[in-house]
Amino acid sequence: MQEELNQFERNKVWELVQRPTHQNVIGTKWVFRNKMNEEGYVVRNKARLVAKGYCQEEGIDFDETFAPVARLEAIRMFLAYAGEFEMSMMGELNFFLGLQIKQCQEGIYISQSKYTKELLKEFGIEEGRTVSTPMATNVQIDKDEKGKSVDESKYRGMIGSLLYLTASRPDILHAVCLCARFQSNPKESHMSAVKRIFRYLKGTIQYGLFYPKNENFSLKGYSDSDYAGNIDDRKSTSGSCQFLGDCLVSWFSKKQNCVSLSTAEAEYISAAFCCTQLLWMKQTLADYKCSFENVPIFCDNISAINIAQNPVHHNRTKHIEIRHHFLRDCVSKRKIEISFVPSQDQLANIFTKPLSSETFSSIRARLGIMHIE
Asked: How many helices (H) and strands (E) does the chain have?
């Protein structure tokens, strides 16, 4: 606590003034926290003096809560003067926000094995057999309106925990997102599907993402869809992943907003989502003096590729929402290049549908998800 106060004094955090007569004074409180490493051992005791901002009332103590311009200027000024503040040297980064980081000559490993073990213990799934995939290929999940209901609070807790785990385990993303659709009224069939994900995790606790050290700095994306895969409303699922060199840096799995009338439409919409993400990445990387042209999107549907490459609107594509046609515009301007990839090499398959054990393991390895010692 004294160290915190001394730091405030050295950095001249505040200046004592006369108490204002017509203003409420916001008090302070101490916040104590034990900082732990990935093994659960306390490595540091932290004490922070913070203001009781929650005591303020809108309209009395403040009028606005957010000013975009002021916020941006504050960030720029902070960065400009960041040599001016004291920092603690904690050594090489190895644990941050639940992520375990291991650095070596070959590259960087990121995992959440500690968090996975805690989840298995919390939800009582430490015992029992393991499975090789997070989803069975012979089971289709729907609303199951006639099924027996389960504890909604526990189900949501399990889904929330699994969603956080997808930060380093993209191999479970599709299964988790599919189960997350039934949080409002979960049934026993949904709970069984969630428990299967945990049984898969039990057998792959030490798995995580590997970022190899190399000079390949190309940008590329993979796009796929599961046409009319949702049994309840027949909407398709979009899935994509983006690579920077050989490193998987972004991935998503999402049910499309509208019902597609053909496989080509579903694949085209999915490619448009992938294009959006790649354009954002291009813009972000431009700040680091990295430029990319004709960024490839790999798609396994020739009809969708033809739609993206055809500048003429014809009757077969009139039903597709106009907002998705910006993909065609990006292709014509050579910002994006959409290319064909065989289905067996479509890495985005893992984000749209359940796969056989052999196919799943192959794609998982190619995404850079591997066992970490």
From this structure: 10, 12
CA distances from 336 to 221, 269, 293, 322, 330 (A): 10, 15, 7, 18, 6
CA 25 vs CA 28, 157, 337: distances in Å: 10, 38, 59
- Residue 133 per-residue DSSP state: S
User: What digits encode the pLDDT tens for the residues 292-317?
Assistant: 889 999 999 998 898 888 766 555 66
Using CA atoms, how far residue 260 sits from 120, 210, 256, 274, 339, in Å, is 38, 36, 8, 17, 22
pLDDT tens digits for 66-106?
Answer: 434 544 444 444 444 447 556 666 677 787 778 888 988 88
Query: What's the pLDDT at 67?
Result: 39
Could you list the beta-strand ranges (E) of 184-261: 207-212, 219-226, 237-244, 247-255
Residue 180 DSSP class:
H
pTM: 0.78
Q: Provide block-wise average pLDDT over 10 residues at a time, the chain (373 residues).
A: 82 78 80 79 82 67 49 46 59 80 89 92 90 92 92 93 93 94 92 96 94 85 92 91 92 90 90 93 87 93 88 61 77 91 95 95 95 84
> Look-up: residue for tokens 């055809």?
310
**Do the bridges between strand 28-36 and strand 42-51 make them parallel or antiparallel, or are there none, so unpaired?**
antiparallel
Strand pairing report for 237-244 and 247-255: antiparallel
Q: How far apart are CA 73 and CA 59, in angstroms?
A: 25
DSSP label of 105: S
Please report, as a single letter, which amino acid is at residue 88. Answer: S
Q: CA–CA separation, 213 vs 255, rounded Å?
A: 34
Q: Taking a C-beta distance cutoff of 8 angstroms, is the pair 223, 297 a contact?
A: yes
- Structure token pair of residue 19: 């108490």
Task: List Cβ<8 Å contacts ≥24 apart for 279-284.
Answer: 279/330, 279/335, 279/336, 281/219, 281/242, 281/244, 281/249, 281/250, 282/219, 282/335
- Residue 371 burial (CB count, 10 A): 12
Residue 354: HSE in the Cβ half-sphere, 13 Å Cα cutoff: 19
